[in-house]
């Protein structure tokens, strides 16, 4: 009797979802073609008075959640699609995939035209263009509202039409908290869910004993 072949685990992809902040309608989902091998995160505490503050009564107070950033490097490669005869990739290479990511930093052309038309009509207070709410999704337990702050592309190989067929993308994102969006904004509610998931995961780790730190008890 032959053994059953091993079943490969289903690997989730990281990606970005664009959501209409008013209606909650999902505008688009962009999945990374390949998950990056590393994901960098940084935190900057929002202490009252900032670093070097002199008001001792405020030393333990926080103004809000920290400024949190994500940075990743991802690859986009057309080899597999070219092997199976993908018509879109055959015509444009990976330009459509890169464009989908690049447009995260753009207002739409329709918004730009309307903005210009409003200014031409003499409207004195033309509000800046509002973009969709961007969600960075990295597993079911990390879904964070973000603003894309940095984006760079290094195109490495090209087809005979000079379409890029391989590239490395660097993406920097800043998490938008309730301090940025407010509690009543859809993104603010999503941020609270994001932080509450952190709190739930942290609570699952049992507290260490003072003995692990070489103490009989923690001084108080």
CATH topology title of the domain at 25-44 and 63-106 and 128-201:
Elongation Factor Tu (Ef-tu), domain 3
Summed up, the helix count is 6
CATH class of the domain at 25-44 and 63-106 and 128-201: Mainly Beta
Radius of gyration over C-alpha positions, nearest whole angstrom:
23 Å
Shape: globular
Secondary-structure class: alpha+beta
Uncertain stretches of 5 or more adjacent residues: none
How many individual β-strands?
7
Main sheet, how many strands, which sense, barrel? Answer: 7 strands, antiparallel
Q: Overall pLDDT, averaged?
A: 90
| String of helices and strands | EEEEHHHHEEEHH
Distance between the termini: 66 Å
Strand order of the largest sheet: 2-1-5-6-7-4-3
CATH architecture of the domain at 25-44 and 63-106 and 128-201: Beta Barrel
Helix content: 10-25%
How much of the polypeptide forms β-strand, as a percent range?
25-35%
